[in-house]
User: Fold these one by one.
Assistant:
Number 1:
Amino acid sequence: NEVDLAIDFTDTPYFGNQNDPMIMGGKKHKGTHFSYRFITLNVVVDGIRFTLKALPRGPLDTDDKVVKKLIEYAKQHVRIRYVFLDRGFFNSKVINTLQDHNVKFLMPASANQKVKELVVKGEVPAIHDYEMQARSKHPACFKLVVAEDDKGLVGAFATNIDVERGSEADLFTLYGKRWGIETSY
């Protein structure tokens, strides 16, 4: 059977010396700007929350490299249906890493200028062929799906999942499975 997976970061506050190994700076949380950061890979099947792998993320690690390690590990242990990520992973290197490993993914698109124009000025619902330019000259190509949920919220998703016209709003329900990684913490 195929399983759905979610990838996310979680931080553990750190109150020691900010120059200690593997300490990450960030937003203030519980009285400190520093933390240990972990990237986790979780199975998010209905009623099941299972951490498949967790890796520390240090200041010199890149998101695409740690995502690659998680996907390679997952492929050794499960058959992947979909991988859900939050908009913090919306960049060409991560998307290319997922596609290079033939993984179907779904994540909200960050509201950059190009995405805003498609959401605000474009039709809803809509499915666009989208090319994200990378500074490294390796663009990421995927579908940008603009949809409206049942409460009238319009959002844009980056995906390589086959989405049929008329079912764009179903991505909100599908993406809701990602919440399983949050409840696993």
Note: The two ends are 25 Å apart (CA to CA).
Number 2:
Amino acid sequence: MLEINLSLFLSIIFSIIAINFFLRNNFMVLENNRITNIDGLRGYLAIGVFFHHYIITYGWKMTGLWERPANSFFNNLGVFSVCMFFIVTGYLFSRVILSENLNVYSFFKKRVYRLMPLYYLVIILMFLVVFIDSNFEFNVSLELLAKQIFMWLVFLRATMNDYANTSQVTAGVTWTLIYEWLFYLSVPVFFYLKRFKYLMFLIIFSLLYLSLNEVVFHSLNAKYMMLFFIGFIVYMVQDRIKFNFNFDTILMSTINLLLILLTIVFFDSYSVYHYLLLGLIFAMVVFGNSLFGLFKKPFSVALGEITYSIYLIHGIVLYILFTILFKDFVVNYGNVYFYILPLISILVVSISVITYKYIELPFMQKGKK
């Protein structure tokens, strides 16, 4: 356990060193219109998801089962990060919902250019991995294969070409995108519904009821709706209440760090208390807490810039390394697996910088035109 935790810590240091290298050599240029603290937070959330799947990959190779880590801390590296991602999304798009004007075409154009190019690149890479590992043989009918491809293109995961490990190629991370897109589709709805306050409140309370009871619609769990709503509440509080209080002090950073550790170490499932802690942690960041100045650092903001690339790319990197190229490495050298995590972190960050620079950024700029 101590060795794994040390490896995780060193991996964060190595990730920072790698991103600093790209910043110093002007391979990355930070934009001036970023929300610094939130961007600084997002980078570490993406790394948390990466660590989570690195540990799951170890268990998968040793037992043959792709399942959550038994240790709550290692499991919550992923759970905490994904929950916070949803809260961030709810917060960022609340200002769109509450704005005076909304150009629906422009809104969705930016979302498509922001998210789809990298996603489709990852899906293409996944297809290649599947067919290379299938010796380029068609194990299903062309009609079924076309249906499976279409499902992936619209975020509905399916077993590709009868390849059992299809989801593992991307570490299964694409499941969150369907929730993101459902939220994006609801943004114009809530924008126009806000004129009818009673109807809007009725819908919100209905969604909260479904969320708290974890009602499932065709494999979509309503509990994640609560997380978007938490982001909305934080935005409302920030927008309407002006705090004459400095949240960026050593004391407040200590409190926030303790809340983060409490949430990651001791909570093992979604609950109202879990949601409240997540909301409180995020609210403190929004109100100015930078966690001892960490989130304000250029390297943290830069990690935030490449968050989406880290999130989508790391699964393919892990799969190619430990399932395609070095298939038996984990079984034969399990004691070394965690010691090389810092080096894998450099690889993931470096690839993510490249995909951000040459895929994400150009398409984002096109989407803004």
Note: The first helix runs from residue 2 to 24.
Number 3:
Amino acid sequence: VVDAVGEGVADFRVGDRVMGMLNPIQDGAYGEKVVFWAAAFAHVPEGLDLVEAAALPVGVLTGTQLIEQGLGDVAGKTVLVTGAGGSTGRAAVMAALDAGAIVTAGVRESSRDAVRDLPVAAVVDLSDDKVLAAAGPFNCLADTIGEPAERLFAYVKPDGIMASVAVPAPSPPPDSTQRFSTLVVAFDRARLERFARELASKNRRMPVARKLPLAEVAQAHRLMEQGGVGGKIVLVP
């Protein structure tokens, strides 16, 4: 909730409920109060809880940009989304479905429950190469995991494209006609606010996996490192 605004700020007023992206290399967000650039924040609509809103920006924008910018026009195409049980993957699935794609959700076997409510064409176990091969090859692949990305080219059609969050970016096999697109997420207020309004109207669901008090930040990092959380971990005051 905005406590004060700087000179020249016209987008926000004291008392506004907001969400956004902070630069982790500078100050990060591990505090009860932060100073933020207005250009990197958005309004939280009525009906959306602030804890839910806090979990949205990075995952939602990364997932939607993987589809809309990384893959481009996916209407009528088959798309595999890896890590579909997480927040970024879930957002990518939603964006691909909105764009008219035929979507397969790639998850760990333990994460199947996290995607049961999504109207995808199929759900596959990412650790099972035979299952992946039988489901593909796909026109497009949106990789929200990033590691190991190289093996995923085997499930993309020869003229297909993969968009990934992997750093460093993997290269298609030698002499391949496959294309690769890497993504560094950028803030997009209009896109984020549109997604938040859909959540507030209950047309969408983005579960928060865990809520921990700020004092338990070390435990939050342990959970992240173990993996398999199935969504965002939010630190609350």
Note: The two ends are 13 Å apart (CA to CA).
